[in-house]
Specification:
CATH topology of one domain: Aminopeptidase
Largest sheet: 7 strands, mixed
InterPro entries: Acyl_CoA_acyltransferase, GNAT_dom
Bound molecules: coenzyme A
Organism: Flavobacterium fragile
Distance between the termini: 41 Å
CATH architecture of one domain: 3-Layer(aba) Sandwich
Strand order of the largest sheet: 1-2-3-4-5-7-6
Protein name: GNAT family N-acetyltransferase
Order of helices and strands: EHEEEHEHEE
Number of helices: 3
Helix content: 10-25%
Shape: globular
Number of strands: 7
Structural class: alpha+beta
Strand content: 35-45%
Pfam families: Acetyltransf_1
CATH class of one domain: Alpha Beta
C-alpha cells in the first residue's frame, strides 16, 4: 500500500518566494515576490509539502477592506500551487488551513483579490464575489471575493 505524504506547516515569507516566483511572478524580478507587510506580526505564511518538496503556499494578512463593515478582517494573498501539482486538492487544503488559522484569531471575515481564472476554485470553497471586476496592472483581471466566518 502506498501513502501520499502531504503536510502543511507554517513557513517564513522568504520560503514562499520559490513558489510565488514560479507561479505568480514568472519572468519578473525576484524582488516582486516580496509583498508589503510580509513580515508583520499579524501576517502568517503556510506551505504545503509533498514528499518534502514545497508545492503550494498561502499567506494571510490582517487587512481591512472598506467594502466590508466587519472589524476583524483577514486578507489571503499569494495563493499558489506549482503547475505540476495543481488539481490534486492541495490548494483547497491550503485555503482550509488559512480559514482555521483565521477562526483561531476570531476573524469575522476573509477577503482577497481573486484572479479571474481562480474564481471557480474559490466558489467551490464557498467564497462569493462582491462588486465588478478590476484590472491589476501586469497581473490581470481580478474580483474581490469573501467569506463571513461568524
Ligand atoms: C488556483 C489554484 C491555487 C488552485 O489550486 P489547486 O491545488 O490546483 O486546486 P485544488 O486541486 O485544491 O482544487 C479544488 C477544487 O477546485 C477546482 N478548481 C481548481 N482550480 C480551478 C480552476 N481554475 N477552474 C475551475 N475549477 C478549479 C478543482 O477541480 C477542485 O474541484 P473538486 O473539489 O470538484 O475536485 C492553483 O491552480 C494555482 O496556483 N493557479 C495559478 C495561480 C493562481 O491563479 N492563484 C490564485 C491567485 S488569486
Amino acid at each position: 500500500m502506498s501513502y501520499i505524504i502531504m503536510k502543511i506547516k507554517k513557513i517564513s515569507s522568504i520560503e514562499t518566494y520559490t513558489v510565488r516566483h514560479e507561479v505568480l511572478r514568472k519572468g519578473k524580478p525576484i524582488e516582486t515576490c516580496q509583498f508589503k507587510g510580509d513580515d508583520d506580526e499579524n501576517t502568517s505564511h503556510f506551505g504545503c509539502y509533498f514528499d518534502d518538496k514545497l508545492v503550494g503556499i498561502i499567506s494571510i494578512f490582517k487587512e481591512k477592506n472598506n467594502l466590508f463593515s466587519e472589524s476583524n478582517q483577514f486578507q489571503i494573498r499569494g495563493m499558489a500551487v506549482l503547475e505540476a501539482f495543481q488539481g490534486k486538492g492541495f490548494g483547497a487544503q491550503l485555503v482550509k488551513k488559512a480559514e482555521n488559522h483565521c477562526i483561531n484569531l476570531n476573524a469575522d471575515l476573509i477577503w482577497f483579490n481573486a484572479r479571474e481564472n481562480a474564481v471557480p476554485f474559490y466558489k467551490k470553497l464557498d467564497y462569493k464575489i462582491i462588486g465588478d471586476s478590476f484590472l491589476i496592472p501586469n497581473v490581470g483581471i481580478h474580483f474581490v471575493m469573501y467569506k463571513k466566518i461568524h
